[in-house]
Design a protein that fits this description.
The complex is a heterodimer of chains A (114) and B (111).
Chain A (H helix, E strand, L loop, with lengths): L3 E4 L2 E4 L5 E7 L5 E8 L3 E10 L2 E4 L6 E3 L9 E3 L8 E8 L9 E2 L3 E5 L1
Parallel strand pairs in A: 2-11
Antiparallel strand pairs in A: 1-3, 3-8, 4-5, 4-9, 5-6, 7-8, 9-10, 9-11
Chain B lengths: L4 E3 L2 E5 L4 E6 L6 E7 L6 E6 L5 E4 L2 E5 L5 E6 L8 E8 L6 E3 L3 E6 L1
Parallel strand pairs in B: 2-11
Antiparallel strand pairs in B: 1-3, 3-8, 4-5, 4-9, 6-7, 7-8, 9-10, 9-11
Classes of the chains: A mainly beta (114), B mainly beta (111).
């Protein structure tokens, strides 16, 4: 079972470059989200989506764009990378409704911006 | 402002000891979850609590949701080295809304 798949697992960028982190899930989950994890900061929500065509900002959305054209995919775009965006990024998906808080995570994408 | 405050941030104990990790907020949550994360992997759900006062047990782990649905605790009995990891609490203010995480508690259990 694939679950939530993130690519790439590792990426090094130079300041100002753009890139897209890919996330795909095969569980037919309506809810998808992106978090970043930094030492001592826990997981901070970047953007989330409750269904195809619907996205919303989380706690730290600046510098990131998302789109949700299909139920399965939720890419995260960095338009102009900055060293402050060096982090581990996690994509997560879940069902809506009463138990919407149960998330299934990918293995993470480690991004370094020089 | 951190919506969910976890304590302690770090915990280093010997095998066989008991421990409790706390997750507190001034806000009411429709549900709270506890996740465990190992290095290089994504968090994995341990339990979800949805009813004020609810207690759930998972082998040596006991989870409690406060009566007012503003706080939760995780108690581990007779900790083992395999319990080592980052424990994260997470809450949804309303069902169907985004999940917010605490900063986590790093647990180290030595034999």
């Amino acid at each position: 079972n694939a679950g939530v798949t993130q690519t790439p697992k590792f990426q090094v960028l130079k300041t100002g470059q753009s890139m897209t982190l890919q996330c795909a899930q095969d569980m037919n989950h309506e809810y998808m989200s992106w978090y970043r994890q930094d030492p001592g900061m826990g997981l901070r929500l970047i953007h989330y989506s409750v269904g195809a065509g619907i996205t919303d900002q989380g706690e730290v959305p600046n510098g990131y764009n998302v789109s949700r054209s299909t139920t399965e995919d939720f890419p995260l775009r960095l338009l102009s990378a900055a060293p402050s965006q060096t982090s581990v990024y996690f994509c997560a998906s879940g069902r809506r409704g009463l138990m919407a808080g149960e998330l299934f995570f990918g293995e993470g994408s480690r991004l370094t911006v020089l | 402002t951190q919506l969910l405050e976890q304590s302690p941030q770090f915990l280093s104990i010997q095998e066989g000891e008991n421990l409790t990790v706390y997750c507190n907020s001034s806000s009411v949550f429709s549900s709270l979850q506890w996740y465990r994360q190992e290095p290089g992997e994504g968090p994995v759900l341990l339990v979800t609590v949805v009813t004020g006062g609810e207690v759930k047990k998972l082998k040596r782990l006991t989870f409690q949701f406060g009566d007012a649905r503003k706080d939760s605790s995780l108690h581990i009995t007779a900790a083992q080295p395999g319990d080592t990891g980052l424990y994260l609490c997470a809450g949804a203010r309303q069902a169907g809304t985004a999940l917010i995480f605490g900063k986590g508690t790093t647990l180290s259990v030595s034999s």
